[in-house]
Design a protein that fits this description.
With 721 residues, the chain is mainly alpha-helical. The protein is built from 33 helices and nine strands. The protein has a three-stranded antiparallel sheet, with no helix packed on it. The longest helix has 19 residues, at 20-38. The chain is elongated.
Length: 721
């Protein structure tokens, strides 16, 4: 290809290239020819070569070597060269390029040029790539009122917008002229004026107050657009200048925000736009959407807000997925303030869960979860559970989390709550949060009348499938606590599982322990459940002993501790392995093991020392949360007396210099009304005289009320340490 070919011929040759390599070869040869001609004197082809280079730039190839040629062409007195030079500057230069500073003086000269076309080129270039320094230097040259005569107001207004964004304090120069532009009839001038006023109001609160006086004028302008007849010059799909309408609505939204007077002045207009605009075309939908945003952002009337929600409801039925998406995004923002109005469209929102578009489906899920209430919890939860069974993997975690939150907040009954969580675990147990297992365990412990129902249901799930780890963990825990209920021949709440002996239950737990699908945490739950059954099954000791040499440290530690119960503390094993008490996080005495402000409370006669915490030495001791505190507190009520089974727990490794020895308690029954007491002697050997602290936690049940309190004692006499 000859270096002197025209632009059209170069485009034809590039498009005709059969491979990318052939295209690169053509462009490289042409760029080399352009470079050579740039180095020559003015031969009349400079603008022609720069135009070809701009096309190369549009294809994504390097064209930076043409920046200085842009500067030369802008300084040229010829209009055709200026035009290509300014176009090149807008494409090849930006405010970060040093070469952009070289055209500042040329732009200043061209802003005062006698030709409006040259002025237009300078205004467009400054509005496109002007830096903050250029804006400060050239702002005095942008005289809006002077440029009105030369029909350049639209370009000047957009240039002023760019300057205000770059240097907000320059807004004071354009505020007086911007107000007068609203009286113009030309739509282009009005569009530029509205954009400029919007920018000024967003940047300066004082300017915002000043332009609130122009609300009636803007309302009148908008009414003229809505009620005007057909105008070929401004009509777009049956809507009169929707671009200007959208800009006016955005400005009204800013002016009416947090202002009663301005909001009242535009309420009638917004109702008129909402009822008279056709939403069958994209242009009409754009105007209606801006109307809805304005209604929701200002202090509008309640009826108008309902009308806005109904418009968004109609958008949900639109075939365009983009419109459905923005509709649900807007409904999500207002569902808390206009909950009842959004509820009317619940059916349509739920149908959007079946949409093929992932973004629409996600928005529908978020909105459906926000619509859950005590009134519709049962019906809406059915839809959400159905969606969970077929939802994409990336949405499962969010879906399960939302279902759990809704069930915890609005559950009509404890059985419904348990059934819902178990259904989620069965369907998507691998995507639930880490705290789901302890939360469900707490829920089960509080539902005492449902223990039989729950353990039967979980045992059936365990023998059916052990792949869902969270479900298996809860099942193991329940079997360990309430496994004896499986032997009942009948259960009021559900069809019982036929269990002839606890050996069948033990076989199920052994399957979990030996399965390659079980995680170490799951095996820990299964081993503890097995240990819980040791008071009724003799062969458990051999099973527990196997895991004393397990490669998993956590499982090994559990097995060693449980073996110690068999050997050294067999007389206490039955008491230690009693059924867990009800855990009530909301009880006044529940302090999560922390002392209340470090103060010491006087112990009541029925309270018994239950927890000892050793002070940690400055050595590298790491707190082990997985020691024998897995067996928490055990108690039960026997008529008018309290039976307390006491377990001493250390949340940290005790210093080697302190030795603990516990004597047997004097009894395990404390009579009521202060008629007796239980004592236990604890011997501490403290040869190195380290500081001693004892944390006392007391748990007991009185008349079906669970009580718990924790205090810390650190006022031992100095002779003790």
């Amino acid at each position: 290809m000859s270096p002197s070919v025209r632009l059209q011929e170069m485009i034809r040759v590039i498009r005709g290239a059969r491979t990318q390599g052939e295209e690169r070869g053509v462009i490289q040869r042409e760029c080399a020819a352009i470079r050579a001609q740039f180095r020559q004197a003015d031969n009349g082809t400079r603008s022609h070569n720069l135009a070809k280079l701009l096309y190369v730039h549009m294809l994504g190839y390097p064209a930076h070597f043409g920046q200085m040629e842009c500067v030369r062409l802008i300084a040229s007195p010829r209009y055709n060269e200026k035009r290509v030079g300014y176009l090149g500057a807008m494409m090849l230069l930006d405010e970060k390029q040093d070469a952009s500073l070289l055209i500042t003086n040329s732009i200043k000269n061209d802003l005062s040029h006698s030709s409006q076309y040259v002025q237009s080129l300078a205004l467009c270039t400054l509005a496109c790539m002007g830096s903050a320094e250029m804006c400060r230097d050239l702002a005095p040259e942008i005289d809006l009122m002077k440029l009105i005569v030369m029909t350049l107001t639209f370009q000047a207004a957009l240039c002023a917008v760019h300057m205000v964004r770059k240097v907000p304090e320059l807004g004071e120069l354009f505020t007086p002229a911007a107000r007068s532009l609203l009286s113009e009839k030309n739509h282009g001038v009005l569009h530029g004026a509205v954009v400029l006023i919007t920018e000024l109001c967003e940047r300066n609160p004082d300017t915002l107050e000043q332009f609130r006086k122009a609300v009636p004028e803007l309302v009148l302008m908008m009414k003229g657009l809505v009620m005007s007849g057909y105008s070929p010059e401004h009509n777009v799909a049956g809507i009169s200048d929707p671009f200007l309408q959208v800009r006016i609505l955005r400005l009204l939204r800013i002016l009416g925000r947090n202002n009663d007077t301005a909001s009242d002045a535009m309420n009638d207009l917004l109702a008129q736009v909402a009822t008279n605009t056709d939403s069958s075309k994209t242009a009409g939908s754009a105007v209606l959407y801006e109307t809805v945003l304005t209604v929701m952002d200002i202090k509008s009337e309640s009826g108008l807000r309902v009308l806005a929600v109904n418009i968004l409801g109609r958008f949900l039925l639109n075939n365009d997925r983009n419109i459905r998406y923005i509709s649900m995004t807007s409904l999500q923002k207002i569902v808390q303030t206009d909950h009842n109005a959004v509820q009317r469209h619940r059916g349509t929102i739920v149908d959007c869960l079946k949409d093929q578009d992932a973004s629409v489906k996600r928005r529908a899920l978020e909105l459906s979860l926000a619509l859950v209430s005590a009134v519709n919890i049962r019906s809406l939860m059915k839809e959400l559970l159905l969606f969970l069974s077929s939802c994409p993997p990336e949405l499962r975690a969010h879906t399960t989390s939302g279902i759990f939150n809704a069930a915890e907040r609005y559950a009509p009954s404890q059985r419904w709550h348990i059934d819902t969580i178990l259904h989620v675990l069965t369907t998507a147990g691998g995507d639930v949060r880490d705290e789901t297992v302890p939360n469900l365990i707490q829920l089960i412990t509080t539902a005492t009348e449902l223990h039989c129902y729950t353990v039967h249901k979980l045992y059936r799930a365990l023998i059916t499938d052990i792949s869902v780890q969270s479900l298996v963990q809860v099942a193991c825990w329940c079997i360990g606590e309430y496994g004896d209920l499986l032997l009942r021949g009948e259960c009021e709440e559900t069809e019982p599982v036929q269990v002839h002996a606890l050996d069948d239950v033990l076989d199920a737990l052994e399957t979990v322990l030996q399965s390659h699908m079980s995680s170490p945490a799951t095996r820990g739950f299964a081993l503890t459940a097995t240990m819980k059954l040791s008071t009724r099954i003799t062969r458990i000791r051999s099973i527990v002993s196997i895991y004393g040499s397990c490669i998993d440290v956590e499982l090994q530690q559990r097995a060693v501790e449980y073996n110690a119960l068999f050997k050294k503390y067999d007389h206490m094993r039955a008491a230690v392995l009693e059924r867990m008490p009800v855990i009530d996080k909301s009880s006044p005495g529940h302090t999560n093991g922390e002392s209340a402000g470090g103060t010491i409370k006087e112990l009541e006669p029925t309270k018994l020392t239950q927890e000892i915490v050793f002070p940690q030495e400055p050595s590298n001791q790491v707190s082990d949360e997985n020691d024998c505190n897995k067996l928490r507190y055990f108690r039960r009520t026997l008529g008018p007396t309290y039976r307390l089974f006491v377990t001493f727990i250390s949340h940290s490794h005790p210093p080697q210099s302190v030795q603990l020895q516990m004597k047997a308690p004097s009894g395990d029954v404390i009579p009521a009304h202060g008629l007796g007491q239980v004592t236990q002697t604890v011997l501490l050997n403290n040869p190195n005289k380290v500081s001693l602290k004892i944390r006392v936690r007391v748990c007991y049940t009185s008349q079906s009320s669970v009580c718990q309190d924790t205090v810390q004692i650190d006022s031992f006499p100095s002779t003790a340490w």
